[in-house]
Amino acid sequence: MMCYRIDTYRTPTALEAPACLAVRYEAITPGPVLVHCHIDNHLQAGMAFVIMQGLDVGFPTPPTEVADVSHSIVTSNPEPTLKDGYVYATTR
């Protein structure tokens, strides 16, 4: 396994299938984070995923003027199977 330290804001990461990518980052605020490709055709083809961070501590209480989303998968799953701070991705 080869590990590289990459400036993710400027350096693209290319993979050839079959492949996987592990990303380590510091989660500062809880909540979903969308990671996506900035090339429209790639984004439309599904090059995007959501990192759920802060599942172990819970999300902040939303303001009262926000619609009730208590039926969502995030709040209705008390013991999520995904680990905080990990990126799960597969290639076809």
Automatic annotation (TrEMBL):
This is Plastocyanin-like domain-containing protein. The lineage of its organism: Eukaryota, Fungi, Dikarya, Basidiomycota, Agaricomycotina. GO terms for molecular function: copper ion binding; oxidoreductase activity. Keywords: Metal-binding. It comes from Kwoniella newhampshirensis. Residues 14-52 form the Plastocyanin-like domain. It comes from the Eukaryota.
